[in-house]
Known about the structure:
The chain is mainly alpha-helical and 252 residues long. The protein has helices at 32-47, 55-65, 70-90, 95-98, 104-117, 120-123, 129-164, 172-183, 186-192, 196-206, 212-218, 226-241, 244-250.
Amino acid sequence: MMESHNPSQPPGSGRDMRGTGDSAPPTELLSINELARRCSEETNKFLKQNVSNERYCLELFRRAIINRDEGAWSYIYQQYAPLVLTWVTQHQSAAPILGQDGGAPLVNAAFAKFAQALTPLKIANFESLAAILKYMKMCVHSVVADEVRVRQARQYEDTLDSIEHEPASDDPAEDVVSSLAAQHLWQIILEEVRGEDERILIYEAYVHGMKPGEISAQHPRHFASVDDVYRIKRNVLERLRRNRRLQALFRR
């Protein structure tokens, strides 16, 4: 990782927050424009693994995070957005979620997460530009992972929704269970039911004909989501499918 070549230096070293011994004015006296200009120059040196004076960038981040300076945040975004975009596109899970926007929303999300996570209390622990950029890169990885999970969950919900609205089932166990109430064969079900949540699910689904979404809404204490209904339902049907007394019905 590029920033690993610029580890934090102890006080008194050639690259601490006080500078490198030049006659430059204290960073706190510089205007935001001058500070950003010098930070840009030093960041370019840093990324090329050359000796750099990090105090300008550290002061820019300090003003953004501690002083909540919008101008400082604007310069930070301009300076580091291309680097963040590179991290996004290089992430092993990013390709399917980049889309036509080229990753711009993920870049914005990464900066938002960075700004929210790096509090004024935490920034005091970051004594080098390398440490700050490493933290920013961690935010990129977190945002990409979150987006992948959201996309997968959305696809799964769409799949469950389509299953819920299918007019018929190809599962023989489903068909058999649907007919059990009329046949007064509840004792077979009770042999396989394990717990109150399974009993409620079978009763609501095959006696009252409720959909998974309705069952979840009616019994939130037992089913936090529709996904829970489907998961428990699959478990019950799998056990019923292996029930010897029902196997004869499966073959009808």
